[in-house]
Queue: 4 jobs
Job 1
Amino acid sequence: MTIFEKIIARQIPAKIIWEDEEAIAFHDVNPQAPVHVLIVPKRVVSRLTDAKDDDRALLGKLLLVARDMAKKLELS
């Protein structure tokens, strides 16, 4: 089980700022910037090169969630 799967399963604590049935967004535990948010799909896509055509909508959704989180966190 990956660290992300453990966060999704609530086995590891995380500062979750958004979630729906397909994805989750949370603050990075070791931020590399003043605001460092991770947005991950709940369905495992190990690598972008492993993504299937069926993952197209999900991957597009992650970009829109990133946009929404930037607005929510007042980032430009």
Note: The longest strand covers residues 23-27.
Job 2
Amino acid sequence: MLISFLGKYALYLALLQAWVATLGSLYYSEIQKLEPCVLCWWQRIFMYPIIIILAVGMLRKDKNVVFYVLPMAIIGAAIAFYQYLLQFTPLAEVNPIVCTTVSCEEIQVAYFGFITIPFLSFLGFVAITALMLIKLRTK
């Protein structure tokens, strides 16, 4: 029952999730004035286009839109997970990423001590990935 509901509305829910993630990132950078680090920019590069891809795919009723979104969501999730590891593990000591103005390991926001911006980004990408996989399964 739940899977069929999610499958039916997967594209709409993924579009909503991408909008929430995009508006959230813009809120933190433009209103809260938190400067994004290099890895944050890469996560944005993979999240922002998902809105356009999903919207155009839905308007054109493109049955393959899932295959356009999935790689972006999976790569974005990997980047977000890597940054989250940098923030909370000794991996930061061997970080090969050169961060310019803002360190990728810096925790700018932490809700409940562990919910950081990369964690929220990771959850967003995973939600979109899960919705795309459900959509594939329920075709």
Note: Residues 4 and 53 are 23 Å apart (CA to CA).
Job 3
Amino acid sequence: MNQALAFIGLGIMGKPMARNLMNAGYELHVYARHPEKARDLIDAGARLHNSIADCVRSAAVALTMLGAPADVEQVYLAPGGLMDSARPGTFLIDMTTSSPALAERIFAEGQKRGLRALDAPVTGGAKGAAEGTLSFLVGGAAADFERCRPLFSAMGAKADFMGPAGKGQHAKAANQILVAGTLSGICESFAYARRAGLDLSRLFGLVSSGSAASRQLNALGPKIISGDDSPTFFVKYLAKDLRIAAGEARSAGLALDVLEAALRNCLDVTARGMGDLGTQALIHHYEK
């Protein structure tokens, strides 16, 4: 595979992922709406372009890590976007948590143009992006997944093929339902314990090694106790992910009560001006 990559979306997740690709020896071309976000990558050898079209023109693979489905639709399908600008044979890897239907649409449009699209949302958060330990849930064509496996290995520890286009996004929705349920349980437990007058640090020391133990509890429990709302993943993005999952569940005729409650609570925290805080800020829903 040609070593030249185009990378679009240099936020809290995208920038460290792009850096790991550079560290693996790939030639990186970047486009950013806010070029200052790319400064350290440029200093390390990445090439900044003024448009998506220029960025993707000489790349064998275009990777995107964007904020929301609307951003994905704009970058891929708007005039002058990836579909219009990529050469036939280019791989298009969208790592945004997005809509399964949009992933299917991008795949179908790509097929018409000789482009190979994969939906490959990630789990592992900003820490996993920085450390190169992300997991990728990939939908599309199996042969295209295998061709791109070295790229996933450069950015993460695991990558698995979930099935045809859109299945990567469905798998990520299932993951986020698990995340939301666990996070809600942690926040409700701590809210109850605090109201009961318990020492949260002592409680955490016990429950974190028992049957309630989880990676989320270990990562976010101490932050909740200390009042540290700094983000590794934004509340507003979790709300966006849960909105997608809830919409898919409703369309499938599923009544997922915990998911719906978690979505309402994340939207409440976001509406109160805390959307740019870490997901552990969900605790504030219970502190009104």
Note: Residues 20 and 228 are 28 Å apart (CA to CA).
Job 4
Amino acid sequence: MQPDIEIYLLSCSNEKIIEWLQTSFTIIEEKKLNAGLLSLKVATAETEFEIQLLQKAAGKRFTSVWFDSDKTPWSDDVECAKAAFTALDCEVRCNIASWSETEEQDPDQWWHINQYEEGPFIWR
């Protein structure tokens, strides 16, 4: 289990992302921290934690979704990315190192899922 999870969604609105999140979590509080940064306090049957949505992360068209908890429905970033792709039908990227933590791992190597393929790639 990872201490947190982060995925990047290509050209996906916060509204659509929040609809997806509501299928797994109850949103207790929503705070706009600044332009492009939205913080959600969410609850599950077991715990409460924060999810942050950062627009224009890693390029102007990506939104970062960061789950500040190890108590999500997914065991790692890739599992979360697969669920997001299925629900949102947009390209999803995540850090491959989060699920394969080897010392020789290339920090530019990522995992992506889109309508054409799924697998590792170099994100520069």
Note: Residues 5-122 form one domain.
